[in-house]
Write a sequence for this structure.
């Protein structure tokens, strides 16, 4: 996927998803269907490739799930790291939407 | 004010009503009288209401549209049977204390501590448990958990929601900062989440957002408060829409009415609908502004809309709080009235009563409108 295509993706500000980078949880800034922006802890090492495990909490009657993906670094700054990853499951975007704080609290006119 | 309005307020939701008395009675039953909220006994039997402040000696900022009414029932087990009340100001509190305690020469430290707690409760637009907890944390004043209906699960969920919103914002703001940010952003997220008076740690953020340091705490707290209210409103939204559906479909009585009565009823219903729609849509508009400015900053790197939004954040925060209390109460009252008539028309007498109550809730006069007195009999 090209960078231009990736930039067109909807970015979600989520709650209830944990990203474990090589086994360590890193705070998610935002996430799209094929890339995740992580907050870089001070002094943390930057690897060109990494295994990210997305741990999703249970919603309603659903169950908690984990999705390991092989991620590759797209961009790194002092503050953030962006990793691209393959689609973890067919209903991935739906799962992101269900945990997006903006979608979950969207108010519409009466 | 008559007792009906008082009873109506006693039926308000947590945004508008903080029943200190209820929690005190619960502690008394459990034999834990040492963990009361206040030292002054009458305050522990009080019920606090948020309502529009029309008093001439209004001491609040212009945007702080609601004040705190401290109501002490004569009989704590029959709160609707009348009591005494004062609109909170430091002077009113001391005057009432003097009247209850017969004399007061200087403010003791215990009295000052209670006054300080009332000041904190007065400084927030709603009594939502999370808002109370945050306000006391910011003021570095302890608040007993036993006076909050806030489960660890709810607290964790709200905290995660708000911190999730803050993180992208801080990253975006620091991209505009000329200072080198070595401190971990996550640590700053926590600090910003619960701002104290010491703003040194978040100063680069304040500079990036071009906030005057003396206003920064209030503005950032209000911004976070708006995000919290969006969360609360999202739970209220389906209930309010259910109410809107009901009023659109069933706001005619079972009985056949004459033309004049019918027209009067229709005009009443329309006035209420219009007021509720206007309140709700104001909130939606604030929420849209909040989101648009957030997205501009976080995704387009454009700071201007966000800085502009922050200029009015305090006003928006108070407005959302004021409306939340009213709408929450609307739904509670409506559910109470229709509890025996689900998805049906009401008898005329009951419908008229419901419309009267809704009119009282949505009139600008509010709880104090019908009284100048400090007693409720």
């Amino acid at each position: 996927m090209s960078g231009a295509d990736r930039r067109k993706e909807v970015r979600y500000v989520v709650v209830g998803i944990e990203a474990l980078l090589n086994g360590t949880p890193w705070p998610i800034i935002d996430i799209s269907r094929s890339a995740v922006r992580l907050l870089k802890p001070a002094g943390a090492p930057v690897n060109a490739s990494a295994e990210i495990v997305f741990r999703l909490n249970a919603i309603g009657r659903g169950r908690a799930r984990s999705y390991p993906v092989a991620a590759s670094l797209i961009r790194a700054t002092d503050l953030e790291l962006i990793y691209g990853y393959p689609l973890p499951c067919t209903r991935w975007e739906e799962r992101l939407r269900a945990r997006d704080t903006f979608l979950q609290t969207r108010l519409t006119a009466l | 004010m008559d007792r009906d309005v008082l009873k109506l307020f006693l039926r308000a939701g947590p945004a508008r009503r903080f029943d200190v008395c209820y929690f005190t009675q619960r502690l008394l039953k459990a034999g834990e009288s040492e963990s009361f909220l206040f030292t002054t006994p009458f305050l522990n039997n009080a019920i606090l209401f948020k309502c529009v402040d029309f008093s001439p000696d209004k001491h609040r900022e212009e945007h702080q549209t609601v004040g705190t009414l401290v109501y002490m029932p004569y009989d704590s087990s029959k709160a609707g049977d009348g009591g005494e009340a004062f609109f909170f100001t430091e002077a009113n509190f001391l005057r009432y204390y003097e009247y209850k305690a017969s004399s007061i020469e200087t403010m003791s430290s215990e009295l000052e501590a209670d006054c300080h707690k009332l000041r904190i409760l007065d400084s927030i637009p709603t009594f939502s448990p999370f808002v109370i907890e945050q306000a006391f944390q910011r003021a570095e004043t302890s608040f007993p958990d036993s006076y909050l209906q806030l489960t660890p699960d709810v607290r964790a969920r709200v905290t995660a929601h708000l911190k999730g919103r803050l993180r992208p914002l801080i990253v975006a703001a620091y991209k505009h900062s000329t200072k080198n940010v070595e401190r971990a952003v996550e640590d700053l997220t926590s600090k910003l989440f619960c701002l104290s008076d010491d703003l040194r740690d978040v100063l680069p953020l304040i500079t990036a957002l071009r906030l005057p340091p003396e206003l920064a705490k209030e503005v950032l707290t209000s911004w976070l408060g708006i995000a919290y209210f969006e969360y609360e409103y999202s739970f209220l939204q389906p209930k309010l829409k259910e109410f809107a559906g009901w009023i659109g479909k069933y706001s005619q009585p079972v009985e056949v009415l004459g033309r004049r009565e019918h027209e009067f009823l229709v005009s009443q219903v329309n006035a209420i609908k219009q007021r509720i729609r206007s309140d709700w849509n104001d909130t939606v508009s604030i929420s849209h502004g909040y989101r648009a400015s957030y997205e501009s900053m976080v995704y387009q790197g454009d700071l201007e809309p966000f800085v502009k939004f922050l200029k009015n954040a305090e006003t928006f925060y108070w407005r959302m709080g004021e409306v939340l209390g009213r709408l929450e109460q609307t739904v509670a009252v409506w559910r109470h009235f229709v509890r025996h008539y689900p998805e049906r028309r009401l008898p005329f007498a009951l419908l008229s009563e419901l419309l009267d109550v809704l009119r009282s809730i949505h009139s600008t006069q509010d709880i104090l409108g019908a009284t100048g007195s400090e007693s409720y009999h």
